[in-house]
Write a structure and sequence with these properties.
Blueprint lengths: L4 E7 L5 H14 L4 E5 L5 H11 L8 H25 L3 E5 L2 H11 L4 H12 L6 E6 L2 H11 L5 H9 L8 H15 L4 E5 L4 H21 L2
Parallel strand pairs: 1-3, 1-4, 2-3, 4-5
Amino acid sequence: MKKGLFITFEGLEGCGKTTQAKMLYNFLIEQGCPSVYTKEPGGTKIGQKVRRILLDQKNDGMDYKTEMLLFLASRAENVRLVILPALEKEKIVISDRFYDSTTAYQGYGRGIDLKTIRYLNNFVVGKAIPDLTFFLDIEPYEGLRRSTSFGNSREIRFEEEFINKKIIEGKLFLERVRDGYYHLFREEAERIKIIDANRSKEEIYNEIVEIVKRKIADSTNSI
């Protein structure tokens, strides 16, 4: 390949994206493909500190703009220190969330101006544009049920907020976020692949692996 391959995983809480991202990473390593796994928020020393701020229940009164800018700060460090260096070495980068999360959650969910979000996302990521994105789709309340019941590291502040979020234009917060992901899919259907998350993790994994194999083959053939 001329460059590395950048794969991102997106979806609502409880959809299983973290599990699938790690399973794909392990598969690629087993196949001898140089790969890197990262996540948002996090991925770097500063990113982990930002993550703790965002998930702290004591910060439940945080302004939406502050929240968005913290996510972007974590992303800027991740791009600079992890993602771009790995891509330049022709590695495959797998990220558990990336800029689509900001558009879906802070844009469609919170109602922050989408043009502003697009500008800031572009400013932060530069050339680090995903080649392939998996949107693991699940009904919001089923996702929350899975997340709060079975999660080993519950992101409490967000889950409590999601459950109690007020209705805007007839829809709850996570319903608006899910709609946002579908808007993104319609705009970039070639990049974003919708994966039915209402199945066993093995079924989901097998579908993802087949798509990634085809993507790698296409990238190799294009040299």
